[in-house]
Specification:
This protein has one domain. It is low in regular secondary structure. The protein is built from one helix and two strands. The relative contact order is 0.18. The two termini are 16 Å apart. It is globular and about 35 Å long. It has a two-stranded antiparallel sheet.
Length: 68
């Protein structure tokens, strides 16, 4: 089970989970400063968010809907 570490919190999630939704559900601020008002709301076009991935990553379409 993947672990996400953000803003001092460690969150476990399903491997097919939507990272943006997991962060929001756990009270993690996705944006800072002006990006709180001007961002793409998760469609991947603005470039105001960034992540660092450590470990094995499976190739997946980043626009895929999460598995139910």
């Amino acid at each position: 089970m993947p672990k996400v570490i953000a803003q001092g919190k460690t969150i476990e999630c399903d491997s097919a989970a939507n990272l943006r939704q997991i962060l929001l559900q756990n009270g993690i601020d996705l944006y800072n400063s002006g990006a709180k008002l001007i961002n793409c709301r998760g469609i991947g076009s603005c470039g105001t968010c960034a992540i660092f991935i450590e470990g094995e990553v499976s190739p997946a379409n980043w626009r895929q809907e999460p598995h139910a």
